[in-house]
Write a structure and sequence with these properties.
By secondary structure, this protein is mainly alpha-helical. It is built from ten helices and no strands. Mean pLDDT is 87; it is low at 285-294.
């Protein structure tokens, strides 16, 4: 990227692609496919939210998918004109923010899982999972949003957007730390659960019939997949943005498509496939156990 050069009036015919922020022209095919997939996932999530009455979960996923769609529209604007500030700022803000909504939906799910499988063996109550992790997600979302807004304002004023980038990085680091703590607590709960059932899966299934439900098993596997994908993506974005606008990662389109686009769409689809609705149709987040039928 050219330092100190005003590229606001540049086009592909007047400036070198190396003068653009990313130093490449975003792939129209890859970004169109991701946009379409997020659109389909959004439609499916809206339908599932309506059918299974999982409103909070559906609203969070809706905004996550919507932000991804807007972000990839920004990428397509940048394909048409890699020097477009509108395209760049749209995608950098929306694609940075979107996965935080998916994380919040996952935090809601773990609270329901603990309530369904047994609150007595959990280190913290189902509601505490929400009170702990959802505010952390809000902090992460706020930092990333503020960082994106500051970067946008400073870029439009032809000023260095580094301050905004640093704030966004802080939000991403906080998100990674929150996800790490979340995964540790989930792993500990799993250990406590199986220890309470004599380390026997057969005994656990006999004593907790919910575990025998294929829909519940699918739900757990897909929730795990979504969590890992969002974690991988968040670590990648921290490293990418920490490298600055002249770093190698920010100029590598293949890595971006794989570690940002593919990771997040896998998470979104996993949350479709393993929707909590059919897995726990009567689940509640409370101090009382849920009655589930096999």
């Amino acid at each position: 990227m050219a330092q100190g050069r005003d590229t606001s009036n540049c086009t592909l015919s007047t400036c070198d692609i190396k003068d653009s922020v990313y130093e490449y022209r975003p792939s129209v095919a890859a970004n169109s496919i991701l946009l379409a997939l997020f659109g389909l996932s959004l439609i499916a999530h809206v339908a599932q939210g309506w059918i299974y009455r999982q409103r909070a979960y559906a609203i969070l996923i809706f905004f996550g998918c919507l932000a991804e769609i807007i972000g990839y529209v920004g990428r397509l604007i940048s394909w048409n004109n890699p020097f477009s500030e509108t395209g760049f700022l749209t995608q950098i803000c929306c694609l940075t923010l979107a996965p935080a909504f998916f994380s919040a939906a996952i935090y809601i799910c773990i609270a329901k899982i603990v309530n369904a499988l047994g609150t007595d063996i959990s280190r913290i109550s189902p509601r505490t999972y929400l009170w702990l992790f959802v505010p952390c997600d809000i902090v992460s979302l706020s930092l990333q949003g503020a960082g994106g807004g500051i970067s946008s304002t400073r870029a439009q004023n032809n000023e260095d957007p580094k301050l905004g980038s640093d704030i966004a990085i802080a939000g991403l680091v906080f998100q990674v730390a929150t996800l790490t703590l979340f995964m540790i607590l989930c792993a500990e709960y799993a250990v406590r659960f199986f220890r309470s059932h004599g380390w026997s899966l057969a005994r656990a299934r006999a004593e907790v019939p919910l575990l025998s439900r294929r829909s519940f098993q699918l739900f757990l596997v897909m929730l795990y997949v979504a969590t890992i994908c969002i974690f991988i993506r968040s670590v990648y974005r921290v490293i990418e943005l920490a490298g600055g606008w002249d770093g190698e990662l920010i100029h590598d389109q293949t890595l971006f498509i794989i570690l940002e686009g593919v990771m997040v769409i896998i998470a979104a689809i996993a949350l479709n496939v393993g929707h909590p609705g059919p897995a726990m149709p009567q689940a509640r987040i409370s101090g009382e156990k849920t009655e589930e039928t096999a």
